[in-house]
Design goal:
By secondary structure, the protein is mainly β. Helix content is 11%, strand content 32%. The protein has 2 domains: 159 residues, no CATH class; 121 residues, Beta Barrel (L,D-transpeptidase catalytic domain-like).
Length: 290
C-alpha cells in the first residue's frame, strides 16, 4: 500500500464539495427538540442550560466547516470512552458551539465529502441542545507539545437541526495491546473478534478514546483492493500527518496483508473477513480504542 496516498480519494472528494459551494440554511434560534430525539439529560438543570443563539445564514456560511482536515480551536476535546450513541442526519447546515454554547465556532455541513448525508453522532441531549462528536481536530499535535493532541472532538448543536436515524446496537473495540478488533453488542458481549495490525511506537494508534465510523469507500489505487476503507472520526494524537500526505492524520480501518504487530502509521490493518464485518455495521457506529 502506498503509505502517502491512503486518503487521496478523500481529498479529491472534499475538493469537489468545496467547489460545489455552501448550502443555503434557515435562521436558527431557540426551537423545540427534534421529533424522535434522545431524552434530555436528567442531571442538567433547565435554568443552567443556555438558549440556542440565532445564527444567520450569512454568519453560518462564514464559519469553518468541521470536516476531517479542519483544525478548529473552539471544539471540545474528547479524552474518554463512551458506549452509547444516537445517529442523526442534518436538516441543513448547522452551527456548532463550544463548551459555553454562546458563540458558534464551526459549521456542520449537511452533506459529507462524498455528497451523502453527513453522519452525526449524538451523545447527550440537554434541553434544545445535542452534544455530538465531530470529525475535525481541535489542535495539531505539533502545537500541543508533549501532552499530545486530542484524537477526537465534540461540540454542541441545536437539536432542531437534527433528524434521528438510528441507535446502533453494536460498537467496535480496538485493542492495541492485544492487537485485535472486536464487534461488541450493546450488552457488552463480544460478537466477533479479529487480529489487527496497529500503529508503531513512533506513530501509535490513539488510545483511551471513542470516535465513530464516519464514511466508507472503495479505492483500489490505495492498495486495499476491492475492500472498503472504513474511515473513522479519529485522528493521530502524535503527529500532524503521520502518513506524509494531506489527510489530517486520519485513523482508518482497512485491508492489508499484514494483520498483526505494530506495523502502521496509526491506522488499523485488517483481513478481508474483518473488513466485511465492520463494513456491515451502520455509519455512526462507535469505535473505541483501548
Amino acid at each position: 500500500m502506498h503509505k502517502r496516498t491512503l486518503w487521496t480519494s478523500v481529498s479529491i472528494a472534499a475538493a469537489a464539495v468545496v467547489a460545489a459551494g455552501a448550502l443555503a440554511v434557515p435562521l436558527l434560534g431557540s426551537t423545540p427538540a427534534a421529533p424522535g430525539a434522545t431524552p434530555t439529560s436528567p442531571s442538567a438543570s433547565a435554568a443552567a442550560i443556555p438558549a440556542v443563539p440565532s445564527v444567520s445564514a450569512a454568519a453560518l456560511a462564514a464559519l469553518p466547516e468541521a470536516q476531517y482536515s479542519a483544525v478548529i480551536a473552539g471544539l471540545v476535546p474528547v479524552e474518554h470512552t463512551v458506549t452509547e450513541d444516537t445517529v442523526f442526519h442534518l436538516r441543513a447546515d448547522a452551527p456548532l458551539f463550544g463548551a459555553d454554547r454562546h458563540t458558534a465556532v464551526a459549521r456542520f455541513a449537511s452533506k459529507d465529502f462524498l455528497q451523502q448525508p453527513t453522519t452525526v453522532v449524538g451523545l447527550r441531549r440537554e434541553g434544545a441542545w445535542e452534544l455530538v462528536l465531530t470529525p475535525a481536530r481541535r489542535q495539531l499535535p505539533s502545537a500541543a507539545g508533549v501532552s499530545g493532541a486530542a484524537a477526537q472532538t465534540s461540540a454542541w448543536v441545536p437539536a432542531a437541526s437534527l433528524t434521528r436515524v438510528s441507535t446502533p446496537s453494536s460498537r467496535v473495540v480496538i485493542s492495541t495491546k492485544d492487537q485485535t478488533v472486536s464487534i461488541v453488542s450493546a450488552s457488552g458481549a463480544v460478537q466477533q473478534r479479529f487480529s489487527a495490525g496497529v500503529g508503531t511506537a513512533d506513530t501509535p494508534t490513539p488510545t483511551g478514546v471513542t470516535g465513530y465510523l464516519e464514511q466508507r469507500y472503495v479505492d483500489p489505487s490505495q492498495g486495499t483492493g476491492d475492500h472498503p476503507i472504513q474511515l473513522t472520526s479519529l485522528h493521530s494524537a502524535a503527529a500532524d500527518e503521520p502518513y506524509g500526505g494531506h489527510d489530517g492524520g486520519l485513523i482508518g480501518m482497512h485491508w492489508n496483508a499484514a494483520t498483526s504487530g505494530a506495523v502502521s502509521h496509526g491506522c488499523v490493518r485488517l483481513d478481508a473477513d474483518a473488513v466485511a464485518a465492520v463494513n456491515a455495521l451502520p455509519l455512526g457506529t462507535l469505535v473505541t480504542v483501548e
